[in-house]
Amino acid sequence: MKNRILDFINSTAAGFVGAGILLLLAFSLHWGGLGAGNSTTAPAASGPSAAASTTAPEMTAAPAPGSTMTPEQIYQKYADSAVQIVSTFPGQASLFGDQSQQQGIGSGFVANTDGYILTDAHVITSGTSQMGGTAQKASDVEVDFRNGKKVKAQVVGYDLTSSDIAVLKVDPTGLNLVPAVLGDSDRAKVGEPVVAIGSPFGVYTSSLTSGVVSAVNRTVESPEAGFTISNAIQTDAAINKGNSGGPLFDEYGQVIGLNEQIASSSGGSEGVGFAVPINTAKRVMQEILSKGEVDYAFMGIIGQTVDQSSAHDQGLSVNQGALITEVQSGSPADKAGLMKGDVITGIDGKQMTSMDDVSSYISQKNPGDKVKVTFMRGKNSRSIDLTLGKRSTS
Fold this sequence. Notes:
The protein is of the alpha+beta class. The protein folds into 2 domains: about 1-90 and about 100-295, Thrombin, subunit H; about 295-390, Pdz3 Domain (Roll), CATH 2.30.42. The protein has helices at about 15-30, 70-80, 280-290, 310-315, 330-335, 355-365, and strands spanning about 80-95, 100-110, 115-120, 125-130, 135, 140-145, 150, 155-160, 165-170, 180, 195-200, 205-220, 230-235, 245-250, 255-265, 270-275, 295-300, 300-305, 320-325, 345, 350, 370-375, 380-385, 390. The strands form 5 sheets. The protein has a 7-stranded antiparallel sheet, covered by helices on one side. Strands 11-12-13-16-15-14 form a 6-stranded antiparallel beta barrel. Strands 18, 19, 20, 21, 22 and 23 form a 6-stranded antiparallel sheet that branches.
């Protein structure tokens, strides 16, 4: 993974420069892109809404890009940052009354030397149940390091809906943790080289694959049906089962995403890979550590993208936007007066050409924020002020 190499100007006071370099390197290795306060042991949490009493580390801005690195250089420097995560779930009771156990294997990476680890939420949950729509958290989570050390981890919290991010905590004592540097996913550009490190199929630990950023700002379906992950990074770097939660590095050795899923007709790595942007992960981690949950704004609508074909078929007066197909009763959209059949064409003066545009824009807002929604009702253009509500992530 490609880390940043700081260029220093030669000085005659070589001793002072050397000391400065050592201090800077020590700072980089300790925080790994995350600022932190006092080291604390985070309590285990029961889910995305479980309260956490730990003080959240302050998040620092991603360091500016330095020199580029080769895949080999990234691997040599940050392979120890990537970890394998083994999650154990209670099984079904047998006819004899005993319960078997099931295991799932994924990947993750060290976020800082305090022992916080980032991974995908679906790595440490068994997915949503058919009854009630809630996920089953793993009863036991083990983190396996490249050097062979295996330790138990606490699940601090997770969001299985709009980010698929989970935060774990291990006791850092004696682990010599190598934190990855958290970059800025907003800087990701199409064509930029990237590398992924993870444990494909749960067998081939610390495996590296390389490729490029194929697209940015993608919207993909999250593991919990009905919600989407915005601003996802698309890549052609091979991502197989077991790679979920592992780091996606840019050419500067900084993590710009967490490998999340692959869209493939066969289920193999020849499909299209997606990563959750690291900026989303940093926000989620900050909120989980500070208040134990992630607050998402919502309007309370279900919609679909309008194009020329659908506009013609449904007799709409515009050929782009977000057609509202359902308005949740009592939701902010309902209270503001939006109706089924309205076509949202703009929010806060920004053009909305699709339902993805609407979802992505609202995902960046907070509950309680006010937005101005412009929409077409029949052939008439209208605008309303709407106060966003809070969507549950449980």
